[in-house]
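FAQ: What does the model actually see?

It sees only this:
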Amino acid sequence: MTVQCVRVRPEAGEATRQTLAERGLLDDAYDITVADGWLYVPVADADAVPAEFDVVDFDAPRRETQTLPADILGFEPSLERLGRIVILDEDDDERARRIADAVMASDLPCDTVVNRASKVQGAHRVREWDVLAGNGTETVHREYGVELAVDIAEVYFSPRLATERHRVVEQVAATERVFDMFAGVGPFVVPMAKRGAETVGCDLNPAAVEYLRENARRNGVADRVTAREGDVREVAVDYEGWADRVVMNLPHSADEFLDTAVALADDECVVHLYDIQHESDPFGPGTEALHEAAGDEYEVRVETERVVRSYAPHELNVCLDARLLGR
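And it is asked to produce this:
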């Protein structure tokens, strides 16, 4: 039967499915299908699909009967998937365990179900988890053709930002030198290296740095990835004037490191500054901070102002793509 589908390349399939699932746009009555080098993901409301996706008509097969958690529970639970881990965000412990039992009894590919037990905290930006089913917090996440091993109990990682990461990665040329100041397990660094760039990823968390090295090897780019553990303000001394591109994905406090980003910059450098600001002026504070850090040394041209997602009531997670040009 002809239905409306998002059409993407297969390597972008899982990230696309997750993005659509978060918005409640998947049409589970039809199968996700590969045909002629494309993946077709059926959607329930084409008008609500984000503009960056291509919506087409496709003759998708109706899905054969599959037991989903909602079939067992009688309601649609809110789930987030990271590799073969299903993540819940439930305040009621009894409800969380009911959902976990239903997930494990369903046909979802899942090894572990966890519930958030704390906010992201500490210098290493990790949170506590209640393991409700299974016994492991390590998994392999796939997005846009990249495999990322991650242990959510040891490192910070958000699958929700896959589309945003891909947007930035697509801007990178093979000749570039890229410095990721808060690299985590490498979701920016590794795909940038796969495009041919020479990359450096720095993180304060030693577990994240070990996963970054593993993920570089896993994706065949270890020769183009340098992983550095430590405070980026100290590590950056070895790379002053080196970078053609700097990634600053530490939205609560990245502006405190802008002087370091400017020190890393070559005569021309693109800075991706992630920020969280009030909806009344989401881009102004970041822009002002960039100009202040650049001083008389660089001209600042803000090329993109992007709302990444809603973070909290009246607060937005945003990104500024800014080009620094030496004077």
